[in-house]
Design goal:
Number of strands of chain B: 11
Number of helices of chain A: 13
Radius of gyration of chain B: 18 Å
Strand content of chain B: 25-35%
CATH superfamily of one domain in chain A: Aminohydrolase, N-terminal nucleophile (Ntn) domain
Oligomer: heterodimer
Largest interface: A-B, 18 and 22 residues
Distance between the termini of chain A: 35 Å
Strand content of chain A: 25-35%
Structural class of chain A: alpha+beta
CATH topology of the largest domain in chain B: Pectate Lyase C-like
CATH architecture of one domain in chain A: 4-Layer Sandwich
CATH topology of one domain in chain A: Glutamine Phosphoribosylpyrophosphate, subunit 1, domain 1
Strand order of the largest sheet of chain B: 1-2-3-4-5-6-7-8-9-11-10
Largest sheet of chain A: 7 strands, antiparallel
Helix content of chain B: 10-25%
CATH superfamily of the largest domain in chain B: Glutamate synthase, alpha subunit, C-terminal domain
């Protein structure tokens, strides 16, 4: 843990977990491939049955499709420690983006000290004229938002962007899943895709920003395990302008996804192969074509490999991905019933919300399960066709 | 007696089970089980039978030393963890690390098992754990195994195990039905023919398996078995320092 704290002296106020204990975070995810919406109570139920996989030091939810009336705007979820942080952040926002609408994120009273949360629906704009902003391609707009998020997370004390995608949002904090679900009124949202996390921090501090999901643009990650390659991954990301500020390993996965899938345009299957490549011994046994492919991937993207135990659920605008580390040191179950897919750390969590799935299985180590929205559903949700990733 | 475990916290459920056993119940049926951890842990009465309808949670039957547990569904991870005695029968699939550090008793699984089945299983004098898997196992089956018997039948699946079978194994034996692709074996094992004593042990276990899950004994026995044993008693003797 100390290693993570070096160079982050300004975060000295963040409470830390002093005692190491057995780990066992819990994950859950649901997606309707036809784009139909499911209420938040369902995902809260699924994660809550794995209550004891966490220890009350973090929980969170990612929801896709919750802001249809603002689907053309980036929905920035901001977490503020105090009023000063909000003022400073809004100053940056007002200078850089057009804010279509802003407001407090609806919450219920939980009777303890906590940060406060705002949502801003924004569009990037050029520094001086709106005309210039109109000329920005979609890609550049994404880049603009990424850079601004990094600037706020790094530069404004007590202020963190916890989600920054379109028509989606992340809700997270310290507490058990049922507490966080209650705080953010998760039951009142409807989404076509949900992920949820129940945290048991082992190596890094349990604080509000350190709860999962981690998000950049519309990429979200919930993770069970630990990324022992954090240092390598972080240094690699820094070369591309990403700054790790959340004091925990999972953060790098969200940024690597953005780098590999959005900027380098790798298909998700290949991103998964970068994260959890086959062992050299297995590569040795492959056909020549395949062998060369994996050798090259390891050479080019060796620094993107995630070492250590993990199971992750990745939410993105077009679907949901489940992935295990290459020797499967963490659990992951996938269930399917008609057009709904379920993913969770435990079979019980799937069967709790879907008692009779058409099928249910444990994906193999390093073998991604990629579930995509149907074409029509994508168009309906985002107002345009999918750029396949 | 019957207990409805619907939405019950695992501690409350396990307390009820213990209380029932203390009162002299011999057969306890748990309905609507969904993810409750530690069912049957540390129980010692040999004449007790627990029947589970639903998916029991992790570490079922851990440290158990006597009872019979029957699961009429899938089971999760670490079933039979450090189990000492008794019997577990699972009619579905099981998760990872089945029979982790198991020291005695038997486990029968009709379906597939996850990764690291029987990791660190051991035997000593009269204590001899046995695990029979009807389907296939994931990679690293029999990892660091120090004793006991693992039988993988691979019914209707191919291959019947994942990569790295028997990594770090230094005791015990694994029987695989039919043939095995050498690529799946770790460097710490060797393949031998089962001897008469092995054959008798396999026959006994397969007979019991067929009775439990309603298979034709002759069909199952037909392809024959290969035996996997440790190549060395100390696979890591020279890992860090050169020695004798």
């Amino acid at each position: 843990m100390e290693v993570f704290r070096q160079g982050y002296e300004e975060f000295a106020h963040i409470p830390s977990v002093e005692v190491k204990d057995i780990s066992g975070c819990g994950l859950a995810g649901i997606i309707n491939t036809d784009g139909s919406l499911v209420g938040g109570a369902k995902i809260a139920d699924a994660i809550q049955i794995m209550h004891d996989r966490g220890n009350g030091l973090g929980a969170g939810f990612a929801a896709y499709g919750i802001y249809p009336e603002f689907k053309d705007f980036y929905a920035l979820h901001l977490m503020y420690d105090d009023e000063k942080a909000r003022e400073e952040t809004e100053e940056i926002l007002e200078k850089r983006v057009t804010i279509e609408q802003r407001g407090g994120i609806p919450t219920r009273h939980i009777g303890r000290k906590r940060p406060f949360f705002f949502v801003y629906f924004v569009k990037p704009r050029a520094q001086k004229s709106i005309v210039e902003a109109e000329e920005y391609g979609e890609e550049k707009k994404d880049e603009f938002i990424v850079r601004m998020c990094m600037k706020i997370n790094r530069g404004v004390k007590g202020s963190f962007v916890i989600s920054s995608g379109k028509n989606m949002g992340v809700f997270k904090g310290i507490g058990f899943p049922e507490e966080i679900a209650n705080l953010f009124r998760i039951d009142e949202y409807e989404a076509f895709c949900w992920t949820a996390h129940n945290r048991f921090p082992t190596n890094t501090p349990g604080w509000w920003g350190g709860a999962h999901p981690f998000c950049l643009l519309d990429w979200t990650v919930v993770h069970n395990g630990e990324i022992s390659s954090y240092g390598t991954n972080k240094r690699y990301l820094e070369m591309y302008g990403y700054r790790c500020t959340q004091l925990t390993d999972t953060e790098v996965i969200a940024y690597l996804l953005d780098l590999l899938a959005r900027r380098h345009k790798l298909p998700l299957e290949m991103v998964a192969a970068c994260f959890a490549p086959p062992l050299w011994e297995e590569i040795e046994n492959m056909d020549e074509d395949k062998k060369q492919f994996y050798q090259k991937l390891r050479m080019i993207y060796g620094s993107c490999m995630l070492n250590g135990p993990f199971s992750i659920l990745v939410g993105f605008k077009g679907g949901l991905v489940g992935l295990n580390d290459r020797i499967k040191l963490r659990p992951l179950m996938v269930g399917k019933k008609e057009k709904t897919w379920y993913m969770a750390s435990e079979e019980a969590a799937v069967k709790h919300i879907c008692p009779n799935p058409d099928k249910i299985w444990a994906p193999k180590a390093g073998e991604p399960v990629i579930v995509r929205l149907e074409k029509d559903a994508y168009r309906e949700l985002y107002g345009k066709s999918e750029e396949r990733i | 007696m019957k207990i409805n475990a619907h939405n019950m916290y695992y501690r409350d459920l396990n307390k009820m089970v213990r209380k029932a056993i203390k009162k002299g119940e011999k057969e306890i049926v748990l309905d609507n089980v969904c993810g409750q951890y530690y069912i049957g842990d540390g129980l010692t009465r040999k004449d007790v039978k627990i029947i589970i309808n639903g998916v029991p949670g992790n570490d079922m039957g851990a440290f158990m030393n006597g009872p019979i547990i029957i699961v009429n569904d899938d089971a999760q991870d670490a079933i039979g963890n450090t189990m000492n005695g008794g019997k577990i029968v699972v009619y579905g699939n099981v998760g990872d690390v089945l029979g982790y550090s198991m020291r005695g008793g038997v486990i029968y699984v009709k379906g597939n098992a996850g990764y690291r089945t029987c990791i660190h299983m051991k035997e000593y004098k009269g204590m001899h754990p046995t695990v029979v898997i009807g389907g296939c196992t994931g990679a690293f089956a029999g990892e660091y195994m120090a004793g006991g018997t693992l039988i993988i039948l691979g019914i209707d699946c191919n291959p019947l195990t994942g990569y790295y079978l028997g990594t770090g194994i230094h005791g015990g034996r694994i029987f695989l039905r039919g043939q095995i692709d050498k690529k799946l074996l770790s460097r710490d094992v060797k393949t031998v023919e089962p001897d008469m004593k092995d054959k008798r042990a396999i026959e006994n276990q397969v007979r019991e398996f067929c009775k439990l899950f309603n298979y034709e004994y002759d069909d199952i026995m037909k392809p024959g078995f290969v035996k996997i044993v440790p190549a060395s008693k100390r696979p890591y003797a020279h890992l860090y320092i050169s020695g004798p």
